Amino acid sequence: MQVRRLGIHESVSAVFPPERLRDALSDADPAVPVVGDDELGDCDAVVTFAYSDAFLDADLRWIHSIQAGYDRFPLDTFEERGVALTNSTGIHDTSVGEFAVGLMLSFARRLHTYVRNQQSREWSLPAWDEPFTLDGERLCVVGLGTLGQGIAERADALGMEVVGVRRSGDPTPHTQAVYTPDDLREAVSDARFVALAVPLTDETEGLVGAEEFDAMREDAYLVNVARGPVVAEDELVAALRDDEIAGAGLDVFEEEPLPDDSPLWDFEEVLVTPHRAAAERDYYRHIAGLVRENVERVTEGEEMTNRVV
Ligand code: NAD
User: Fold this and answer.
1) Per-residue pLDDT tens digits for 127-166
2) Is the CB of residue 147 less than 8 Å from the CB of residue 226?
3) CA of 176 to the centre of ligand 1 (A)
4) What positions does the domain D-isomer specific 2-hydroxyacid dehydrogenase NAD-binding occupy (predicted)?
5) Is 301 left (phi over 0), alpha (psi -120 to 50) or beta?
6) Using a 6 Å cutoff on CB, does residue 92 contact ligand 1?
7) CA dist 279 to 20, 73, 258, 275, Å?
8) Is the CB of 275 under 6 A from ligand 1?
9) Are 136 and 161 in contact (CB under 8 A)?
10) Which strand ranges, in their side-by-side order, compose the sheet holding 6-9?
11) What is the SS3 assignment for 187?
């Protein structure tokens, strides 16, 4: 494969201005224009946020997703057509790690309630036994890749007792015990926080539902920074309504933007964030690093990193 023209698809504007990435890659060998669907003609490759059928029509050889998740790309078609897909895993440990810990800190230290009260100029005190500290609380991280390890490392630094769920069951740094997915319910049963950090796959769709909420402690919080459909959302709403769990910090949803009539907006102990756990002003620089490395690898005839298909 030769990359002479690498388009920055205008859909990346959902995350950062495409021109930032173009400028950050101005020293790379290929020409790097910002392109829309009808300007892909001369491109060999594209860096994108969204998937578009125009990528196949333009016969691109390589597509780079600026997200770690690749659940909306037609992997089988890419495979058949010999299109390479790379993703942006490996860059979200700090951003999403801090975000997940921020959600947990908010629940423990009650920050979200004070923000809400401030909006109505209300000096309102929590019950004496409502606030708690993360120190010594157990966190179960489901999925111990980039995100999961980023969360585990930061939670460990705050004195939390961190356990995890991983397909191999092998130990990872910053976890005191690692379970396999078969033992998911046991793993979540005595955790104060359960953080989801798995990709959305056939195996993980609906991974957390009524039975897991039943297994969780009544004072437990769910943190989902993975993908909405990893959680059976109706069953989450039922668990929150029936006080089977204490609350949830949710960055991702079955449908995004979260519909106006979703009951999730209304729970006091639910924090809704707009799929921005990974957002940071340097995001485009991290993407530029990944793309530049793969351009070099392609030029040298080496295997690309973060290759999905
Ligand atoms: P990664 O590939 O580094 O890690 C994913 C880990 O999950 C891997 O270790 C994998 O083995 C493990 N896994 C897969 N199936 C599993 C299962 N059934 N049980 C337990 N573990 C399982 O990817 P990452 O960068 O950590 O990202 C993970 C996912 O998080 C992405 O696919 C994406 O959907 C989501 N994500 C969300 C945001 C956000 O803004 N909220 C940002 C980045 C990533």
Assistant:
1) 999 999 999 999 999 999 999 999 999 999 999 999 999 9
2) yes
3) 20
4) 101-277
5) left
6) yes
7) 15, 21, 18, 9
8) yes
9) yes
10) 34-35, 6-9, 45-48, 62-65, 84-86
11) helix
Q: Could you tell me if the CB of 229 is within 6 A of ligand 1? A: no
Q: Read off the pLDDT of residues 49-107 as tens digits, 9 standing for 90 and up.
A: 999 999 999 999 999 999 999 999 999 999 999 999 999 999 999 999 999 999 999 99
Q: What are phi and psi of 8, to 5 degrees?
A: -100, 110
Among residues 181, 182, 193, 183, which one has the least CA distance to residue 151?
A: 193
Q: CA quadruple 35, 41, 42, 46: dihedral positive or negative?
A: positive
**Residue 149 — φ and ψ, nearest 5°?**
-70, -35
Measured between alpha carbons, how far is 246 from 257 in angstroms, rounded to an integer? 24
Distance, CA of 23 to CA of 30 (rounded, Å): 13
Residue 158 C-alpha from the chain's centroid? 21
Residue 164's closest CA among 151, 154, 230?
151
The active-site residue, picked from 256, 276, 302, 307, is 256
Task: Say how far apart CA 164 and CA 91 lie, in whole Å.
Answer: 20
Instruction: Locate 290 and state its tokens.
Output: 């990944």
Q: Give the separation between CA 278 and CA 91, rounded to whole angstroms.
A: 9
**Does the beta carbon of 227 lie inside 6 Å of ligand 1?**
yes
Is the C-beta atom of 197 inside 6 A of ligand 1?
yes
What is the helix (H) or strand (E) element at residue 94, kind and residue range? helix 93-109
Nearest residue (by CA) to ligand 1, atom 1, is 145
227 is catalytic: yes
Q: Are 245 and 267 in contact (CB under 8 A)?
A: no
Residues 63/48, Cβ–Cβ less than 8 Å: yes
CA of 147 to the centre of ligand 1 (A): 6
The reported pTM is 0.96
